Structures are given as structure tokens and as C-alpha cells.
Amino acid sequence: MTPDERRALLRRAFDAGVAAAHPAVCMPPHFPAPPKGRIVVLAAGKGAGACAEVAERFYRETHGLGPDRLTGLAVTRHGHARPTEFIKVVEAGHPVPDAAGLKGAADTIRLAEEAGPDDLVLALITGGGSANWVSPADGLDLAVKQATTKALLRSGAPIGAINTVRKHLSKIKGGRLARAAHPARLVTLAISDVPRDDPSVIASGPTVPDPSTLDDAVKALERYKVAPHPDVAKALADPANESPKPDDPAFKNAEFLVVSRPAEALQAAIRVLEEAGVEVRIVGADLEGEAREVAAEHAAIARGLGAVARPVALISAGELTVTIRGEGGRGGPNQEYALALVTELGGLADWAALAGDTDGADGGGGSPADPAGALADPGTLERAGAKGADPAAYLANNDSTGFFEQTGDLLLTGPTCTNVNDLRIVLVDTPDPAPR
């Protein structure tokens, strides 16, 4: 394959993975029948606008429901709204929550509390819901929640640890939305963006029992060296902020179903690669860890492939992390992974890699124009050399966006209106038989 053909194949595989997880594909088969009363749709996350659009279309066209029977609110990331008539869609901050998310969460709780025994509360959850639904526990304000979120994101903590803290500083996360909706029937349809598809971690589990504890939250802050604000320390010492457990009455009339998973996006991408005659090797379906370290491991596998009869793709999913060491750098774990690959695969010919977040945003400042990740190949190093851009220096400063801006290799998709975690593919066309 030529360099352009490799890049085009990687992009087709990535796009196929994203398309397989769109709410229009995965949600309609699971929508419950209308109840005697109303359907109250409550959605959150980067795909919440699309979830609301799809649900509204389904219940209008399939069941003829009007605004007297169909209502609700979706809170999504800025730039991710979709057109609806009956279900209101608002945009809010991500990954750092903002005032719009604060109001959106308050309105969501109110709608849940207003639902009666004859109503159905239909919660449509996608990744990003933790930031979009922000409702600080008593004694906390938005600024403290924002500072805590920023510190956790910089610490390199995995999403499970971050959400353990979030759940114990919230009035909506960790099963508390289920309490608000009781005694109405509650059905949650979720698009998973977390390793192993843990319902209590997806959007911080607002409608399911929470297995984590206040003590777990304290230990997570200690482990990742995040010094808590005094108000946070006080909240985590208050037994009133413990999250509801499985025996809570709120869950007796609640159902939860994951309708799309990272593994399904992975398989959709694999089908595209195999149809192109590529041998696919899965190197992790639920990977976690430091982005640059995982990239080094994958580069070593690529270099050690030896002679093969056809191109080989190393493919992985999961959610990597970045521990911020530099100052003023930009980028997310996918771009950092790609940049680390560039430094590790220097001198290897005929390879290409794509690392992207299926939601269309990898790090960034919360703009819909943020990059989804990056593409890289030997040409990346050539362009970097022509620009005087040292990949190792950019990596040391956690400035992967700055590097790939120089080389023209950013992956730009815009909002995809779904989120099933990251996809990473390293394609080796003619492997180097000698390990580095």
C-alpha cells in the first residue's frame, strides 16, 4: 500500500467503529413501549443530543406520541446539540463542568422528581455525562468541583478512580438520579465508554447502585496525589454523602441495559481491515495505562513482527491516561500515544497509525473543533524535521496537539454524537525483522 492508501484505510476503519455506536443504530431496538402516563427522557453525555433526537423520532413516528406524553431534557457537550421539538437539549461544559451543566442537572433532578407511578423515566446515558450533569453535594460550590475535576484529570488517574470521587461529591451521580425518579419506572439505556462496561462507572452511574464508598474516594485522591480542598475533605467525611447501595428501594423499579460497547466498535473496525486483506491482531480491548507507555509496548510489538505475508494491524480499545508533566502543552491520550509512537518507530518503514477518541474530541479546550486524535507515519517525521519540530521535546511537554499541528496530522472529525472510548490502530506493511 502507498502511504495515502494506508491512511485512508485507517480512517475508514475508525469511521466504521464510530458509526456502529451511533444512537440511531444501537438505541431504537431497545426503546420500551410507552406507559399509561408520560415518557420523561433524561439524557446526558456527548451523545445526549443524538439520543434525544432518536428517541423523539421513534416515539413520534412509531407510537404517535405528542408533547403531552413525551417530554424531557438532554444535557450534552458544547457543540453537540441536535434538533428536537419535545425534548429540550442544552449544551454544557466538558470535561470541566460549567454553570450550564449545573442548571441542566438541577432541571433533570426536578423532572425526575415530578414523574409519577404511571410515568416512564427513560435515562439515555453516554460518556461525558459525569461532566454534563454537575450537582455538587451540600457544602460544595461549582468552583470547587471544577478545581477538583481539573486536578484529577491532570493526575493520570483512570476514569474509574475519577468517577469514584465524583460520585461522592454529587447529588445526581452514584445512583442518586434513581432516588429522584422513584417510584416511577426507570429504564436506562447506556452507551459505554469505559473499560469492562461497568454500569457504575459510565457517566458515574447516576441510575445504578454504587459499589464504591466514601473511603474509596479518599484513597483515590491519596493514590493520585490530589490534595483535596477543605470543603471536599469535609464532604468525603460526611456519612450523608455515601452513595446508595443495591438494597436501596430506588432500584426496585429500575432497569439498566448497555446498548453499545467499545468492543462492538472494535469489531466494526476489524471488519474493514480484514476486508482489505489485513491480518488483525487485537492487543487489548479494554486497555488502561499511561499513553506513552502503552505506545512503547505497541511499538515493540510492531518492530518484532518479523517477515509476514501481508500487512498486519495491531488494534486496541480502552481509555489511556496522561500524567501532565509539562507546562502549557495541549493534547489528549490519543495524540500523546501517536506522538510516542513517532518517537519509538523512527527508522521503521511502511507503517501508519491512527489513534482517536470515538466522540470526536481528544483533550482540547471544549470546542467542537477540537481534534479527535492523530494519524502518523514515516512522513510525519519528515515533515517534523522540515519544521524543526523535535517529537521528543513535544512529548516531554505533553504538547502532542502542537506537534501534530506542525506536521498536519491531526485527526479532525467534529462531534460524532456518540462515545465508545478510543480506537488505536498500528498498521505495519513491511515489518522490520530486526528488533530495535
Features of the shown structure:
single chain, 436 residues, alpha/beta, glycerate kinase, domain 1, Rossmann fold, 2 domains, 12 strands, globular, MOFRL_assoc_dom, transferase, GK-like_C_sf
Structural topology:
Blueprint: H1 3-20, H2 23-26, E1 39-44, H3 48-63, E2 70-77, E3 88-92, H4 99-114, E4 120-125, H5 129-132, H6 142-155, H7 159-167, H8 176-181, E5 185-191, H9 214-223, H10 230-236, E6 254-260, H11 262-275, E7 279-287, H12 291-303, E8 312-318, H13 333-344, E9 351-357, E10 373-376, H14 378-387, H15 391-396, H16 400-407, E11 410-411, E12 422-428
Parallel strand pairs: 1-2, 1-4, 2-3, 4-5, 5-6, 7-8
Antiparallel strand pairs: 8-12, 9-10, 9-12, 10-11
Helix pairs in contact: 1-11, 7-9, 12-13, 13-16, 14-16
**SSE string:** HHEHEEHEHHHHEHHEHEHEHEEHHHEE
Total of domains: 2
Structural class: alpha/beta
Percent of residues in beta strands: 15-25%
What is the CATH topology classification name of the largest domain? Answer: Rossmann fold
The named CATH superfamily of the largest domain: Glycerate kinase, MOFRL-like N-terminal domain
Amino- and carboxy-terminal Cα gap: 23 Å
**Uncertain stretches of 5 or more adjacent residues:** 432-436
Question: How many strands?
Answer: 12
Number of helices: 16
**Order of neighbouring strands in the sheet with most strands:** 3-2-1-4-5-6
Helix fraction? 25-40%
Largest sheet: 6 strands, parallel
CATH class of the largest domain: Alpha Beta
Organism: Hansschlegelia zhihuaiae
Pfam families: DUF4147, MOFRL
Keywords: Kinase, Transferase
Domain MOFRL: 312-422
